[in-house]
Amino acid sequence: MTALPAPSYQTASPRLIWGIALSLAAILWLWGQTVAPFAFEYPKALQIPAARWIGGAITWLVKEAAIGPIAFADITRFVADLIDLPYRATLALLATGLLSGEGSSAIQLWPPLPWVAVVGLLALIGLYAGGIPLALTVTACMTFIAVFGQWQSAMVTLASIIVAVPLGVAGGLFLGIAAARRPWLDRAMKPFLDLMQTMPVFAYLVPILILFGFGPTAAIVATLIYAMPPMIRITTLALQRVPSEIHDLGRMVGCTDRQMTWRVLVPSAREPLLVGVNQVIMQSLNMVIIASMIGAGGLGFDVLNALRRLDFGAGLEAGLAIVALAITLDRLSQALARRNRAAIPQGNALQRHPYLAAALALIIATTLLGLLIPAIQTYPESARLTTSPFWAAAVEWINITFFDTLEAIKNAVLLGLLIPVKRFLLSLPWVAVVAMLGLLGWRLGGWRLGLLTASLSFLIAATGQWEKAMITVYLCGIASLIAMAIGLPIAIAVAERERAWTITRAIIDTLQTLPSFVYLMPVVMLFRVGDFTALIAVVAYAVVASIRYTVLGLQGVDPRLIEAGRAMGCTDWQILTRIRLRLALPEILLGLNQTIMFALAMLVITALVGTRDLGQDVYIALTKANPGNGLVAGLAIAFIAIIADRLIHAAADAQRAKPGLGAQA
Amino acid sequence: MRRSTPFLSGFRPLGLAAVIAATTAFTAAAQESTDPIKLTLHDWTGQLITTQLMGEVLKKAGYSVEYVQADYLAQFPGLESGDLHVAMELWDTTAREALDASVATGNTENFGPTGMKAKEEWWYPIYMKELCPGLPNWEALKDPACAEAFSTAETAPKGRYLGGPVTWGGYDEERIAALDLPFEVIHAGTDAALFAELESAYQRQAPIILWIYDPHWAPAKFEGEFVEFPPYSAECYNDPAVGLNPDAAYDCGKPFGEIWKAGWVGVKDKWPGAHKAIQAFTLDNKEMGLMITEVDLNGKAIEAVVADWMAANEARWSTWIAK
Fold it and tell me: Which CATH superfamily is domain A401-432+466-665 in?
């Protein structure tokens, strides 16, 4: 702390301020219980009835709000119809075929694309964009889905993803560029991004259902809200980090603003933007489970249904089908975006468009053949595989053989780490925590930040959610620390190794898209319901962010700087700590930020295994159709995220102000 | 004449015959809307069976039916706005509040009971009787040795009772206090978690006592018994003076509950015949238990089980759709 350059408003020594503040807090904590009970439990009489207000506002919005003669709900319904059009078209093509009429009296006029054709088409795109290896990967993924009998559901899911992802990418890119150009917009948007990402979907599900109607469109809207923020964030960050030389070059050759953005900045920020696209795909597929709860059907429904029967194998197969879809879409989109524009081939139409011609030929051939041979149209039931009995047996074997060992480990972690931290956090007086957060904000980022952190944390207390919020902080805090502790070393180890990174990437993509439900239930069998099980689920999900962003940062370090370091005689350790990690710090901090966001996003899932945090409140509010309560708890989660985010950023800025390499970043 | 029309998931190429069959089927319900009636599917087998039974019956009457996958509780806004039409299983025990709130908006209607009764109570696997010989009488649980048999590291020496999700209510904390049982309630977050723990314990023949409900596959798959508490009465829940403990309410077992059918209020006007059929639909626990066992334990397809029931009970469902 002493190395901080002292700004003018700092008169007293930092150590003195912290010493006094901490001692006051400790005194309050130790002896305040009897003197000032209000400091420990926020007085009920002074609580802000935010749930009632927000509930009323929602009711007004969905039932009465209107712009002129047009009700707000009519506008959203219109938007829903707009989204519904491409969705219906894609669904007809992939899953249902062309139908006349609705429901069970519908007549199929034309069958959907045969499964062979879909696999073939995706493989062709793979071949076009990334050569034979990619074509093989895609074929393997899609065949996996067919062989395990998930084809029909997978196509329903794919249809909604095909509609949601381009909307998410385009919207994210557009907003991200706008924010990169106008710093005020960036600042204004940040809280909304935090809200969109951290507000549990369950909290706003009910209003969305009312506004957009029950069904796939509402699911797509919810998916967009959840999946777009990473794209916006990454776009803004990437454009801001384009080296100033490239900017200057653009200016010198006389680019207009539009050319500057699309011809200069976006192409030179391509790598990070691709991470953004990857995130939109991953997050969209992540929503598959929740989307299935509101009428999207598809693989998410299969997962839920299988787990209700405790059929882990069936759940895992449906879950892995989601992963296979994710990998296919991600790898294809990455390859397409990376593909360099080759010279335009000459010749007749067939020679100029060999892939298009092949695709058309494939569709026509398989459709005609499909009429004769049903196995080409629909994957034959008799050739399906299932691993269900194997998984049931595997879980049973682990359960019977290792339960006692696992129980011992669990009890050690619970009694040694989780319960003490939880007790400690719950025993803290809220007054002291609010004051300390305010002080920390002030010291790190000035009085504005201090005011923000203090008032947000005060609002949590004032809406009567302090205890639940502390349990949230305890669970997510420990989980984020563990996730960073696991993620950083892994990222450092694989960042420079092509093969290792490819494998790691497949694993973290799997972790991110495999619905946590799939592994949550076996984990419940082995560890019972409770905080430890929740912790495992949160860490498994949050570790993805810490690895992905750290690797991105490390790979972006200019190799010339590493060379220079080596030339000056740095050891490997010095190169790592002084150059690579230092330069990658912005991404690592973004990673930490995202790790916390991911951890908070998992709260609703952990509520399903019996934790008593804010996620549980959101879940209860949903089951009681009480949007007010749900949104208030959701806001509290978002406040926690915002406080963490701002403090991390301020700390990073303070760190960067230190002399040294960091100043360049 | 009344033929079922092709279901949308079946892959059939162009078929003129199907078109003719469909147009003739429509005449059966000529004066009513030909829009599909949307029935919601949730994520448990019993509900899927009930809903598809209803759907098949409606199809026989010439209606167009569409199944929509929806969350049990998130479906209410859809039912209220008319995006969805019929929900076939709303349990008194878990959806009562949401159902009442929804009916109170005037946009949904309770179509009456399904005839099935939801039973829920404390349940233990049969091998626990060795450690706790007095069971199923609830007083056996008062024995400290018995409670200890059900304990874990976190709850010892008290017994660990695995309750349902907080949202299910159930007054187990109050019951434990009123009956002075040496037990602690741990809430599972979902019923999947509840049964995952049961499966785990049953595999290891380990102690467990938990909240189970019926109709469900678990009582069919695992051998065990419900604890017999003093019988439920409304007075026992409302009046502390009633029951064993003169100072506390909830000193008795849990009530049986109805399982309701409900849906959009517009069904009545849009498809009056279907409305009648849905109201007439009834099943009982035994039938349902058998069908759930067929699907979840014997691995039969839901469609096949539904078709069997339709074939065996033609006389019954014909009266539901009779004009």
Answer: MetI-like (1.10.3720.10)
